[in-house]
């Protein structure tokens, strides 16, 4: 995960496109928080501590919402805000009121549903606009990674609240989480490669002062 | 108690199965989207390529037509006007002053006659490029004039009715429409073996519409498109390219009664196109 963080940070400084910069800073934050939680949960103790998961849900929602916000058309942006703001309020309320050592099944399940839905909306928008092949965009691979992660963990999130004390469940839950995270990271890597391939440096001439541009828009 | 045990046993396996199912669904959805988008994008690219090819064919046809027109004018000038002027020059040579007065008068008269013929010839060439009736009196008069000449032969009956032509279109638009009508009428005369041609003009929602009906052997839209794509059919390609310049549509169809063929020209007659 540290490797991905570093790559995301390097890409952030190399690329000039504002949207791509946002993508990489989002990924950097995402992986940094993931890494901190990973260290907290798996190195210090054998069993995961639940409390950081609750804060992580809120952070994750904010970062992914920011990523989707810049990805969508104006109409979907408004829908996104209408859904995310009440959800964040609910997640904060859940964080304060519920037992902090209990898994926040409701928040994470709703969060999964929200991002699966917005991923499908993104795919639908891309199909409707028809600007070249869908997989030529780095955003496609990021959204693909997100949908894989949330789809794979959706069931786990729903039942985690009541089943976290079962050893077999925790084992399976961790297994699914790790596998889906690996797939997600591979897809994020592909996004880096695609973004790099699309990066066209401007020719250095005495008259040209053009900044490097991406070949196609998202 | 049994229920609790069942829950304990089943939850992890349900979790695995459910997660695997969701994962498969998500991957399936994305794969379907990618393949569907690829298919549609490729189809669009193919359409675009076909469109480009069609435009290329039309451009070639237009260039060929221009070349043929130039050759025709060059041939008319070289074969007809050239010999006439050379003959007139012969009559008016230097030896004429040594001739008798009667011979001189005869020579001048002959030269004048030849020059008159040349003027007429050049006028005809000029009229074939831009019919004076069209220029001075508009499309309705030009079509009537064309049909009057055709009716004179007695082989076909041609008539026209302009219902909504109070304001004239731009001269270049009128010339293009006239050329399209001329080419279509020419095709009807050559290929259809029909006994009548009827041209009707109307306006509908800012559109200038011309119907051409005949009772001979005609074309339908798929046949027209097929001929347009083939390397033959220069006249039809010219019609198509002129319609493109006019931002108009052309539609070939068989009349609902199955006795007539109908060609519909639909041209955008926006206000700026209409002469005030």
Chart the SSEs and their pairings.
The complex is a heterodimer of chains A (218) and B (276).
Chain A: H1 2-14, H2 18-43, H3 51-69, H4 74-97, H5 105-129, H6 138-163, H7 167-198, E1 199-200, E2 213-214
Antiparallel strand pairs in A: 1-2
Chain B: H1 2-91, H2 101-129, H3 132-137, H4 139-152, E1 157-162, H5 171-192, E2 196-204, E3 207-214, H6 221-229, H7 234-245, E4 249-254, E5 261-268
Parallel strand pairs in B: 1-2
Antiparallel strand pairs in B: 2-3, 3-5, 4-5
Helix pairs in contact in B: 1-2, 1-7, 4-5, 5-7
Description:
The complex is a heterodimer of chains A (218) and B (276). Chain A contains seven helices and two strands. By secondary structure, chain A is mainly alpha-helical. The longest helix of chain A is centred in the C-terminal third of the chain and has 32 residues, at 167-198. Chain A is globular. Chain B folds into two domains: 61-129; 132-268, Heat Shock Protein 90. In chain B, strands 1-2-3-5-4 form a five-stranded mixed beta sheet. Chain B contains seven helices and five strands. Chain B has helices at residues 2-91, 101-129, 132-137, 139-152, 171-192, 221-229, 234-245; strands at 157-162, 196-204, 207-214, 249-254, 261-268. Chain B is α+β, with helices and mostly antiparallel strands. Helices cover 66% and strands 13% of the residues of chain B. In chain B, a hairpin with a 2-residue loop joins strand 2 and strand 3 (207-214). Chain B is elongated, with a radius of gyration of 33 Å. The chains are: A mainly alpha (218), B alpha+beta (276).
């Amino acid at each position: 995960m540290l490797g991905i963080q570093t790559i995301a940070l390097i890409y952030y400084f190399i690329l000039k496109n504002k949207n791509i910069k946002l993508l990489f800073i989002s990924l950097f934050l995402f992986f940094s928080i993931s890494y901190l939680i990973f260290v907290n949960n798996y190195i210090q103790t054998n069993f995961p501590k639940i409390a950081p998961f609750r804060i992580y849900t809120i952070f994750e929602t904010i970062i992914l919402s920011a990523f989707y916000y810049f990805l969508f058309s104006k109409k979907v942006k408004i829908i996104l805000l209408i859904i995310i703001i009440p959800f964040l309020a609910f997640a904060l309320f859940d964080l304060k009121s519920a037992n902090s050592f209990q898994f926040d099944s409701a928040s994470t399940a709703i969060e999964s549903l929200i991002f699966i839905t917005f991923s499908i909306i993104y795919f639908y928008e891309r199909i409707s606009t028809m600007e070249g092949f869908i997989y030529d965009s780095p955003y496609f691979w990021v959204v693909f990674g997100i949908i894989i992660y949330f789809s794979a963990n959706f069931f786990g999130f729903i039942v985690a609240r009541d089943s976290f004390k079962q050893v077999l469940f925790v084992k399976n839950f961790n297994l699914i989480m790790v596998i889906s995270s690996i797939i997600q990271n591979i897809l994020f890597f592909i996004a880096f490669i695609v973004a790099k391939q699309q990066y066209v440096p401007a020719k250095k001439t005495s008259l040209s002062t053009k900044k490097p541009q991406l070949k196609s828009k998202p | 108690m049994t229920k609790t045990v069942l829950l304990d046993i089943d939850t992890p396996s349900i979790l695995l199965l459910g997660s695997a199912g969701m994962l498969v669904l998500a991957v399936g959805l994305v794969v379907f989207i990618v393949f569907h988008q690829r298919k549609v994008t490729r189809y669009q690219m193919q359409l675009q390529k076909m469109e480009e090819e069609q435009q290329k064919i039309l451009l070639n046809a237009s260039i060929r037509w221009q070349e043929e027109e130039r050759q025709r004018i060059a041939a008319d000038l070289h074969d007809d006007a050239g010999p006439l002027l050379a003959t007139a020059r012969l009559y008016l040579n230097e030896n004429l002053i040594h001739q008798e007065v009667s011979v001189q008068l005869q020579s001048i008269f002959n030269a004048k006659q030849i020059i008159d013929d040349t003027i007429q010839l050049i006028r005809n060439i000029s009229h074939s490029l831009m019919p004076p009736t069209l220029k001075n009196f508009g499309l309705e008069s030009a079509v009537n004039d064309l049909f009057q000449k055709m009716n004179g032969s007695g082989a076909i009956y041609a008539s026209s009715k302009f219902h909504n032509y109070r304001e004239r279109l731009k001269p270049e638009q009128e010339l293009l429409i006239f050329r399209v009508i001329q080419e279509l009428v020419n095709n009807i005369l050559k290929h259809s073996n029909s006994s009548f041609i009827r041209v009707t003009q109307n306006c509908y929602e800012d559109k200038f519409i011309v119907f051409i009906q005949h009772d001979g052997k005609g074309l339908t839209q798929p046949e027209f498109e097929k001929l347009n794509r083939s390397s033959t059919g220069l006249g039809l390609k010219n019609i198509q390219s002129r319609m493109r310049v006019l931002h108009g549509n052309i539609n070939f169809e068989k009349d609902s009664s199955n006795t007539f063929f109908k060609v519909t020209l639909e041209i955008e007659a926006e206000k700026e196109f209409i002469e005030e």
